[in-house]
Amino acid sequence: MVDYDPTIEDSFRKRVTIDGETGLLDIMDTACCLSNQEDYSPQRDHYMRTCEGVLLIYSITSLASFEEIKNWREHILRLRDTTTFPMVLCGNKSDLAPSRQITPSEGTTLAQTWHLPFFETSALSRTNVEESFYTLVREIKKSREPPARRQKGGCLLL
């Protein structure tokens, strides 16, 4: 068994092919709340300023983590000085449904409020883990696309 401390940041790299394009995912698992782990704050904030997208993950077994994810999102948007950014909302630990404190509809409603994709995931059973990462990559690609050009013609009111 490998020792794992979920209270500190960890990073991973994984080569993936999504929609026919191969790329490298550089993943930082912060596994801590904004209110905790202040020693890691500068490194975490630097990562949040320079990354291209974020999985916002809360535990379906913890109302506190569901509330804290709202702070995470606001913190990321503030750091990036923007109102939109590629993100996917994930309710993790779906394998612990009997201990659920957050319903799927609560997760869906929050994601819809923020205009984000939503998944219930399980790191243990790997349910929707790959799909959530792939969806994030697609959201990043969408954010890079230039805005649709306006069609010429039509009516102009002054």
Automatic annotation (TrEMBL):
One function term, GO molecular function aspect: GTPase activity
UniProt keyword Ribonucleoprotein present: no
SMART domains: RAB, RAS, RHO
GO cellular component entries: membrane
Alphabetized CDD domains for the sequence: Ras
Transmembrane residue ranges: none
Record GO biological process: signal transduction
Gene3D superfamilies registered for this protein in UniProt: P-loop containing nucleotide triphosphate hydrolases
This protein's UniProt keywords: GTP-binding, Nucleotide-binding
InterPro entries reported for this sequence: P-loop_NTPase, Small_GTP-bd, Small_GTPase, Small_GTPase_Ras-type
Stated family: Belongs to the small GTPase superfamily. Rab family.
PANTHER family: RAS, DI-RAS, AND RHEB FAMILY MEMBERS OF SMALL GTPASE SUPERFAMILY
NCBIfam families tied to this protein: small_GTP
Protein name, entry field: Uncharacterized protein
